[in-house]
Design a protein that fits this description.
It is built from 9 helices and 8 strands. It is an alpha/beta fold. The protein has 2 domains: 140 residues, Rossmann fold; 65 residues, Putative phosphatase, domain 2 (DNA polymerase, domain 1, Orthogonal Bundle), CATH 1.10.150.240. The strands form 2 sheets. It has a 6-stranded parallel beta sheet with strand order 5-4-1-6-7-8, sandwiched between helices. Strand 4, helix 5 and strand 5 form a beta-alpha-beta unit. Helix 1 packs across helix 3 and helix 7 packs parallel to helix 8.
Length: 214
């Protein structure tokens, strides 16, 4: 009867968070006296852990990355997290999965507090057994948050799958010995997901529905 335990990424999979994330980056860059750039310049920051992205793309030291993240969260924690939109078709998909008795979990490296507020604001929280996010004081990986949900909910991983839009979702799933459905409608795209070894590809929410409800 298909996958009984389904881990979902949040950003780029359940919701499109681009306005809030990119506006928060622009806010922090202005605070630092840096060229704010344009929103589209920061789509690559959607998905991976923020401090590592600042180091990778801007050459920040770990200390500066943490300081910048604190300024980013000034905006994101009050405004940016709600500059967000649920992808069309997601609520109906979740409802149908729950009607079939599937168990659903959110596994995201976004801090748990932010994630819960987003899920509650957009009416997604009731579909999920747990929202497993990161500790804002730690560098939790995708594998870490999958494992936390697994251990908390006693998940049978032989019947589990991860759904996400970035290579980190694929890597985290495979570290935890479960397959991954890569959704290219998010921010990684087919090339990134294929290169990472995604076990399935879904270009649309309808494609995802066909895979999960098969």
């Amino acid at each position: 009867m298909g996958f009984q335990h389904i881990f979902f990424d949040l950003d780029g999979t359940l919701t499109d968070p681009a306005p809030g994330i990119t506006n928060a980056i622009i806010y922090a860059r202005k605070k630092w006296g840096l060229d704010p750039g344009e929103n589209k310049d920061y789509y690559k920051f959607i998905g991976p852990p923020m401090p590592k992205s600042y180091e990778e793309f801007w050459g920040f030291s770990p200390e500066d990355a943490r300081r910048f993240l604190a300024d980013y969260r000034e905006y994101f924690g009050d405004v940016g997290l709600f500059e967000n939109e649920v992808y069309p078709g997601i609520p109906a998909l979740l409802e149908d999965l729950k009607a079939q008795g599937r168990h659903l979990y959110v596994a995201t490296t976004k801090p748990t507090g932010f994630s819960l507020r987003i899920m509650e604001r957009f009416g997604l929280a009731p579909y999920f057994d747990i929202v497993s996010g990161s500790d804002p004081e730690k560098d939790d990986t995708k594998a870490d948050v999958i494992r936390f949900a697994r251990d908390t909910c006693a998940v049978d991983m032989s019947a589990a799958v991860m759904v996400g839009d970035r290579l980190y979702d694929v890597e985290g799933a495979h570290i935890c010995s479960i397959p991954c459905i890569g959704v290219s409608y998010g921010y990684g795209g087919r090339e990134e997901l294929t290169a990472a070894g995604a076990d399935y590809l879904a270009d649309t929410v309808e494609d995802l529905r066909r895979i999960l409800l098969a």
